[in-house]
Amino acid sequence: MKKHNFNAGPSILADEVIDNAVKAILDFNGSGLSLLSISHRTKDFDAVMAEADSLFRELLHIPDNYKIIYMGGGASTFFYNIPANFLNKKAGYVNTGVWSKKAIKEAKHFGEVEVIATSEDKDFTYIPKGFEIPADLDYLHVTSNNTIYGTEYHEDIDSPVPVIADMSSNILSRPIDVTKYAMIYGGAQKNLAPAGVAFAIIREDLLDKIERDLPTMMSFRTHVEKDSMFNTPPVFPIFVLKESLRWLKSIGGVPEIYRRNQEKAALLYDEIDRNPLFRGTVAKEDRSLMNICFVMADGYEDLAPEFLEYTKQHDIVGVKGHRLVGGFRASCYNALPKESVEVLVKCMQDFEQLHKK
Ligand SMILES: *Cc1c(COP(=O)(O)O)cnc(C)c1O
User: Fold this and answer.
1) Which ligand 1 atom sits closest to the C-alpha of 78?
2) Which of 32, 97, 125, 144 gives the lowest tally of CB atoms within 10 Å of its CB?
3) Which of 229, 215, 173 is nearest to 48 (CA)?
4) Would you say the CB of residue 92 lies under 6 angstroms from ligand 1?
5) What is the DSSP letter of 203?
């Protein structure tokens, strides 16, 4: 298993996380049972949940007045759950791409939606800035990292209304000030776990704003009150998420992973900027550390399929760009080693020597 895994999601996990998952599948905690066939209502699984909670809090400095919940259904479930719970009159959304658009579409089922800023005018190649946030919004929704277009907010937003952020693809990749957000959520399959679980970090007072009479499973109150145990939680992905948090702590936590992520991204962006065969696709100041998008430069467009084939020959997986953007996307999530980026950069350099005009 030695491919350089640049998949956008589900995506790379640390080797030791996968090793521990394998062990637990064979024998969970010496119980003689597989992790795949234990009851979620056992002491041993309670311990997994408790450890995930305390590690998440420690790594992100999450204050006590925030609750962390886990649910199946993915980030997409939150696209409708969030407005169902919190959109009473009007919500504001920043439209920075495909995922934002999907969130906006679902919110419209529940009330008035104001798109208060958008980067659609330039094909989502930048993050809108300096926009005014109306004070009468129930909340403001942002997508902190745009997995498909490769743009990312590099600062937490100051807002007079509660900010709700989809952090599916950059959770725990850089330091954030959790207190600037009323709610943070995401699918865990980009940086933390295999597919099957979504997480949410919710400030408790937000729950007081729920006015709608909601089905039990749709209300965040249910999941907070029952500690994500109202129904069967996704046992296996939560275990792996806990292992990813352990791994992250063991290497030095968020400051260290941020340093590594910056280092990896700089390596690749420097090559994109230097190499005459390639060019980046988004505004430099908004470049994502997680999803690095690039295309063949003018005059070299025809070489795209050949470069993709070339990367495959060098054990590189998953750099084909999203069909909406084309070109290439190298997802450099937390667990991706620097060595993999170096191999990709070397490929770009060798390809340049083969084809430079
Ligand atoms: C992948 C992704 C989603 C969708 O997640 P699902 O868990 O598949 O629903 C939503 N938002 C962002 C930013 C993503 O990267």
Assistant:
1) 9
2) 32
3) 229
4) no
5) E
Residue ID of nearest Cα to ligand 1 atom 14? 168
Active-site annotation holder among 67, 101, 138, 166: 166
CA distances from 82 to 161, 184, 210 (A): 15, 11, 10
Is a pLDDT exceeding 90 seen at residue 1? no
Instruction: Please state, as a whole number, how many other Cβ atoms lie within 10 Å of the Cβ of residue 262.
Output: 13
Segment 95-110 mean pLDDT: 98
Q: Which of 155, 183, 149 is nearest to 169 (CA)?
A: 149
Q: How much is the average pLDDT of 158-186?
A: 98
Cβ contact 170:288 at 8 Å? yes
Distance 32 CA to ligand 1 centre (A): 35
Average pLDDT over residues 102-129: 98
Q: Is 190 a catalytic residue?
A: yes
pLDDT tens digit string along 226-272? 999 999 999 999 999 999 999 999 999 999 999 999 999 999 999 99
Q: Is 151 in the pocket of ligand 1 (CB under 6 A)?
A: no
pLDDT tens digits for 121-153? 999 999 999 999 999 999 999 999 999 999 999
Residue position matching structure tokens 């956008």: 8
Ligand 1 in reach of 187 Cβ (< 6 A): yes
Residue nearest to atom 13 of ligand 1 (CA): 168
What values do phi and psi take at 173, rounded to 5? -100, -15
Partnered with residue 117 across adjacent β-strands are 94
Fill in the amino acid letter for 288: S
Residues 35 and 330: their CA atoms lie apart, in Å, by 32
Minimal CA–CA distance to 296: which of 287, 288, 306? 306
DSSP reduced 3-state for 278 = strand
Ligand 1 atom closest to the Cα of residue 148 is 15
State how far the Cα of 56 lies from the Cα of 233, in Å rounded to an integer.
17
Please state the separation of Cα 10 from the chain's center in Å: 10
* Candidate of 76, 93, 329 to mutate for ligand 1, largest count of ligand atoms within 8 Å of Cβ: 76
Q: Please, are residues 265 and 257 in contact by the beta-carbon 8 Å criterion? A: no
Cα–Cα distance between 96 and 75 in angstroms, integer? 16
